């Protein structure tokens, strides 16, 4: 039997994801929009925040 | 040729999109347009050699932000509108031979975050009134490219099935002061026989009124109208229960189960939909390992589903499928 409820005492409301998501939008050759989503650990995301490529946003 | 044609008898829009006849159909694996582009390889939709999750405008969209003018004249009897909207493809993974069920909970949690972002981004557009996130899985469903992916159709109107749910939810709220889906969920939990799996934030159930044998609805325990209202913990729980449901499907007959997975959220037209309760629905097409449940005369022609099975029995089968779960009331 699998335990589907969280085993720790931390309620779902207060759990936080350990990564930060970034979206980079580029134009495809025919003009359509394409969005690359990437996920960085929060500590690394903070360091990279000052040097992100153009078109990238933290979301 | 692309336009919205009004069906005056059913009072709903039909999308005419003849250019989609030319779309890619079951390409060989080496020429999958949804794989990353490999150095020296043919250019796919994704020019980079790898990716985590990608979304992009569908090459063969049913709806477009700048659609052509309709080719036919609009009349009082049958209004015609440009097929305005957005159709996006969501690539879950660069792994061509995978399925969503095989991805980790961590990866599915990231996909939930992407769905949430697309819902917000697309819903902001003034010509979009409804963002519909879904996945068609399996050739039997009509999937034309097997690479694991989903789709997002952003409509300029609220689709008719959603509108019926909105109307039912509003009528129930006005009559009882309560949310309809909250009441349904409470009754399912009290009974317990149709529940397939639960975690802290979500319940998966073959609903009392299931139209298909293995139809499963995944419902947040708290009243939430859309993905944007989920806490990070709830989003994680959504990923976890989706993984469990899809694993159960795949383990039921020891093969990858085809399905349609759809997400019903509140419209994005700025209206008050506080009476509506977000949820996902899975529609696998099989009634036995080798028999399909067809949309036939009564279903397609009259809108009356005939389910040859009992929801209580199918839920028990799914609970017994790995990962095994138990009904809340034993």
Number of helices of chain A: 1
Query: Hey, roughly how much beta strand do the residues of chain A contain?
Result: 35-45%
Report mean pLDDT of chain A, rounded to a whole number: 78
Largest interface: A-B, 27 and 36 residues
Instruction: Give the number of DSSP strands of chain B.
Output: 14
Largest sheet, spatial ordering of strands of chain B: 3-5-7-6-11-12-10-9-8
**Tally of extended strands of chain A?**
3
Low-confidence stretches of chain A: 1-9
Order of secondary-structure elements of chain B: EEEEEHEEHHEEEHEEEEHH
Query: Percentage of helical residues of chain A?
Result: 10-25%
Oligomeric state of the chains present here? heterodimer
The first-to-last residue Cα distance of chain A is 37 Å
Distance between the termini of chain B: 56 Å
Question: How is the biggest beta sheet of chain A arranged?
Answer: 3 strands, antiparallel
Shape of chain A: elongated
Which secondary-structure class do the elements of chain B indicate? alpha+beta
Chart the SSEs and their pairings.
The complex is a heterodimer of chains A (59) and B (330).
Chain A lengths: L18 E9 L5 E9 H7 L7 E3 L1
Antiparallel strand pairs in A: 1-2, 1-3
Chain B lengths: L1 E6 L4 E6 L35 E5 L22 E2 L4 E6 L13 H19 L6 E8 L11 E7 L4 H17 L3 H12 L3 E4 L3 E4 L10 E5 L11 H21 L6 E6 L14 E5 L2 E3 L2 E2 L4 H6 L8 H10 L10
Features:
heterodimer; A: 59 residues; mainly beta; 1 helix; 36% strand; elongated; B: 330 residues; nine-stranded antiparallel sheet; three-stranded antiparallel sheet; 26% helix; globular
What does this structure look like?
The complex is a heterodimer of chains A (59) and B (330). Chain A is mainly beta and 59 residues long. Chain A has one helix at 42-48; strands at residues 19-27, 33-41, 56-58. In chain A, a hairpin with a 5-residue loop joins strand 1 and strand 2. By secondary structure, chain B is α+β, with helices and mostly antiparallel strands. Helices cover 26% and strands 21% of the residues of chain B. Chain B is built from six helices and 14 strands. Chain B has helices at 105-123, 160-176, 180-191, 232-252, 297-302, 311-320; strands at 2-7, 12-17, 53-57, 80-81, 86-91, 130-137, 149-155, 195-198, 202-205, 216-220, 259-264, 279-283, 286-288, 291-292. In chain B, the strands form three sheets. Chain B has a nine-stranded antiparallel beta sheet, with helices on both faces. In chain B, strands 2-1-4 form a three-stranded antiparallel beta sheet, with no helix packed on it. A two-stranded antiparallel sheet of chain B has the order 13-14. In chain B, helix 1 packs across helix 4 (232-252) and helix 4 (232-252) crosses helix 6. Classes of the chains: A mainly beta (59), B alpha+beta (330). The interface between A and B is medium-sized, with 27 and 36 residues. Strand 2 (33-41) of chain A pairs antiparallel with strand 3 (53-57) of chain B, so a sheet runs across the interface.
